[in-house]
Amino acid sequence: MTDIHLSIDSVDAFASIKYSGLAISWSADIGFGELMIYKAKGDDKWHADTETMCSADDKEFLRAALNKWVDEMDVH
Question: Are 32 and 25 in contact (CB under 8 A)?
Fold first, then answer.
């Protein structure tokens, strides 16, 4: 995942009656897409929809995207 030139294009928080979370838009040499990280109201478990970029057994792309986002942050 380090050589695909991954870019985080935007991160938007959302909240509805049922869910809250983050929508992370990304692009790379392999294409583009959106990661949805969310949880249902009243639920303590977070979920991720990666548009088939990951599975329960292979979370490498999700980790790469989150690491890229953290690397781009200004920390004070």
Answer: yes
- Determine, yes or no, domain membership for 76: no
Domains held by the chain: number? 1
Q: Which of 50, 44, 45 is nearest to 66 (CA)?
A: 50
Q: Per residue in 27-44, pLDDT tens?
A: 999 999 999 999 999 999
Give the C-alpha separation, 72 to 49, whole Å: 22
Q: How far apart are CA 69 and CA 10, in angstroms?
A: 9
- pTM, 2 dp: 0.88
Output the pLDDT for position 3.
85
Residue 48, domain member (yes or no): yes
Give the residue numbers spanning the domain of 66: 7-71
